[in-house]
Amino acid sequence: MPSQISRCSVHRPRRDPVFDALRLLAVVLMVCSHTARLTAPAARSWWAEPSLMLEPLCQALFLCLVGVSLALSWESAQARGVARWPWLRAQLRRAAELFAISVVFFLLERGPCWPHFLLSTGILFIIAGAIVLFAPIVPSRGALAWSAVLTAGLWSVAMAMDHRELWVLGLNAGNGPLLPTAIHAGFGLTALLAWRRFGLRGAIAVVVAAVVAAVSVLVSAGSLQAALDSDWARTSHRLIFQGGGHGLQNAWDMIQGEPLRKLRVSFFNPKPRMIPLVAAMVVGLYLLLVPARKLLDPISTWALAMGRFALGVYVLHLGLVALPVVLVGRMQAFDAPWQSNGYLLLTLALCQLYAVLRTHQQRRRREAADVG
Predict the structure, then answer these.
(1) pLDDT digits over 42-96, tens only?
(2) 240: which strand partners?
(3) Other C-beta atoms within 10 Å of 74: how many?
(4) Three-state DSSP state, 293
(5) What is the pLDDT of residues 181-196, one digit of tens each?
(6) E strands along the chain, which residues?
(7) Residue 220 vs residue 205, higher pLDDT
(8) Is 14 in a helix, a strand, or coil?
(9) Distance CA 7, CA 5 (A)
(10) Confidence class of residue 151 from pLDDT cuts 50, 70 and 90?
(11) Residue 191 CA to chain centroid, in angstroms?
């Protein structure tokens, strides 16, 4: 395309099944890792430990695709004749909805722990923050430059705070802080805009930059094994919550005036120096799936339905993850492999059903619009 995002397109942009496949991969792995956390360590199945090890990569992949989706959504909006401000309001409204949902899930899990239920609510909080940070620059002139500058700036801030060991709840400390994970959304947005503006040269430049940055991280770490080591790649943040049960029980105890015991919980978050290495892994996953695009395209409507509606699927699965905790009253609700295996299959089946129903709904709307 001659510009970053063409303003003269009259056709709805065609979906790239590779992106839907990556979203599907991220969602499935996150469902596995969250179900693994509901299971006692001694009762975890073969899929549990690999999914927990890959969880940071899954989060990065999901956030990277959030940035990609922002650019693709603006392309689609232009094709439908939607102006800048209505599109931006829709994105900010979605961010507010995700933030509200994250607060509800935290209250169910931990109860009204101030200020954690506003600043330390997990991945939906990060996604909402990434949308607020990057959505306003997508429709602007020079979006590619602004995206690159903002991404580099956020990474520099995260590196400086990590070096000085400055920890701020919600920003770079706690349960799913904004930095450094949200930076991946900027990388995804910048990569797609570069591809759109410069074509193959832009795509090659993104790949080369990712590889060079990843190599620099590996040289600094000494080896891939050292780079993936928890002490080098992650930092631990310990929070103190009031109450040891689930959120509803803690809230009821507070209403009754009963004393709540303090619960210390450690959260492991990726260090910002891992950003280049993980970004290169995301690019590598995309390049691995590109040759399969022609094979994915015919089956994308149904086989990749969860990837197409990944955000809604993710929210649904969080509700399903919270359900056993509320019913059983403890974080590790499963103490036998058959329980976690069965619940994993049930969760994936319900998520696929939701995606199929959304696909049917979307088709009916488009058919009605075409007739109209």
Answers:
(1) 999 999 988 888 887 888 899 999 999 999 999 999 988 899 999 999 999 999 9
(2) 264
(3) 21
(4) helix
(5) 999 999 999 999 999 9
(6) 234-242, 262-270
(7) 205
(8) coil
(9) 6
(10) very high
(11) 17
Angle at the Cα of 339 (from 337 to 344), degrees rounded to 5? 95
Contact indicator for 98, 185 with CB cutoff of 8 Å = no
Query: How would residue 238 be classed by pLDDT, with cut points 50, 70 and 90?
Result: low
Polymer length in residues for the chain: 372
Q: Contact, 151 vs 183, CB < 8 A?
A: yes
Q: Give residue 372's pLDDT band: very low, low, confident or very high (50, 70, 90).
A: low
Q: If DSSP codes are grouped into helix, strand and coil, which group holds residue 3?
A: coil
Question: Quick one: 164 exposed, middle or buried, by C-beta within 10 A (0-12, 13-18, 19+)?
Answer: exposed
Cα–Cα distance measured from residue 309 to residue 321, given in angstroms and rounded to the nearest whole number: 18
- 39 has which bridge partners? 334
Tell me the two tokens of residue 306.
């969860």
Least Cα distance to 273 among 153, 143, 180, 137 occurs for 180
Compute the distance between CA of residue 277 and CA of residue 102 in angstroms, rounded to an integer: 28
Bridge partners of 241?
Answer: 263
DSSP states along 196-251: HHHTHHHHHHHHHHHHHHHHHHHHHHSSHHHHTSHHHHEEEEEEEEE-SS-HHHHH
